[in-house]
Design goal:
This is HD domain-containing protein. The chain has about 210 residues and is an all-alpha fold. The protein has ten helices and no strands.
């Protein structure tokens, strides 16, 4: 099994599949998560093949992007089998992509080191300047308003409620994005999150100053 060839073939497949994706979960998001996870994985001395494959595939079963997550998961498994990934590695990769989401990845103890690294990389791409851009991109793609001061922030806003438009882009900072810094698993992730979190706080100060109410 030529692991580097499998990684590159998988990258090409994901790039093609997400070519016209417009919610902020596009190929460039995947590419950033892939490279960040690889960098953290090298520092943490983790299994880079598992990390890179999980990072590349992590959004292909996300119910924000697919109509049927179970069918999408079967397609990912079929891809891994066809690529010649060993069954043990396949199990690790599938486990990670099922477990790292904000709603599904709350229990750090259930994640392998590789899973924690991919989760950190994914969450890092949700904060900072890129995270702000992705937040507004996703909100716009779902028809959410930029901000509605009459909406209250819900501490336990579900993804379903969010997708149904019972929130705004700015509310999503408080429902999710500002929480991510304290949910980082690795020391590398924690350090990278500090500046990005501070940038979002500064952005919100400026936003409300310009909002003027």
């Amino acid at each position: 099994m030529d692991k580097r060839a499998i990684i590159l073939e998988t990258a090409d497949m994901v790039k093609e599949k997400l070519k016209n994706e417009g919610t902020g979960h596009d190929w460039y998001h995947i590419k950033r998560v892939w490279k960040t996870a690889q960098s953290i994985g090298e520092q943490e001395k983790a299994n880079l093949f598992i990390i890179e494959m999980a990072a590349l595939l992590h959004d292909l079963i996300d119910d924000k992007l697919v109509k049927d997550a179970s069918i999408a998961a079967e397609e990912v498994e079929y891809w891994l089998e066809g690529a010649g990934v060993h069954s043990k590695d396949m199990e690790s990769i599938i486990s990670i992509i099922h477990s790292i989401s904000f709603k599904g990845g709350g229990n750090r103890s259930s994640l392998s080191l590789e899973g924690q690294i991919v989760q950190d990389a994914d969450r890092l791409d949700a904060i900072g300047a890129i995270g702000i851009g992705r937040c507004f991109s996703y909100a716009g793609s779902k028809g959410h308003v930029m901000f509605d001061p009459e909406l209250s922030v819900r501490e336990q806003m579900t993804e379903k409620e969010y997708r149904e438009g019972k929130t705004s882009a700015i509310h999503h900072f408080y429902e999710k994005l500002l929480k991510l810094k304290d949910l980082m698993n690795t020391e590398s992730g924690k350090q990278l999150a500090e500046d990005r979190h501070a940038f979002m706080e500064d952005f919100l100060v400026q936003f409300f100053e310009e909002w003027g109410e």
